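Tokens in:
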């Protein structure tokens, strides 16, 4: 049986993660609005950023986007539909597997990232918070391990 100290520590960690997510969401949305993108959501920007910065060859399928952004496939489909309408991404059928769609940035999508990335996704001042890159990497690794457990 787990100790009260363990239970309290786990609760405090998860509560902090949830508060951090909410604070980050508010800061990102405020920055997007200030930059003239009030019709964009944090989730839409997550899809764009994943494709640009994380996906191999800056292209991905919808399932990978869902897995890496923590969204279900139907939510990602709706996000992709909206991003296609905004002409920020292209969705094409994968010639190797017609059940898959390949998602890539359009020139407009790349322009969006270049205009807003630094301002929006640097919503927290890591230097001011006293967080080193190594601490950030360690916390990310810990959080990823918890997600996978």
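Residues out:
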């Amino acid at each position: 049986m787990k100790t009260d100290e363990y239970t309290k520590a786990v609760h405090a960690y998860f509560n902090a993660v949830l508060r951090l997510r909410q604070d980050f969401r508010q800061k990102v949305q405020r920055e997007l609005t200030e930059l003239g993108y009030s019709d964009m959501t944090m989730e839409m920007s997550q899809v764009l950023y994943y494709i640009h910065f994380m996906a191999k060859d800056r292209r991905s399928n919808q399932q990978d986007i869902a897995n890496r952004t923590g969204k279900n496939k139907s939510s990602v489909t709706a996000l992709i539909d909206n991003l296609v309408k905004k002409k920020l991404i292209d969705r094409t059928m994968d010639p190797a597997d017609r059940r898959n769609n390949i998602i890539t940035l359009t020139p407009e999508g790349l322009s969006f990232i270049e205009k807003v990335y630094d301002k929006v996704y640097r919503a927290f001042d890591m230097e001011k918070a006293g967080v080193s890159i190594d601490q950030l990497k360690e916390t990310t690794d810990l959080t990823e391990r918890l997600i996978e457990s």
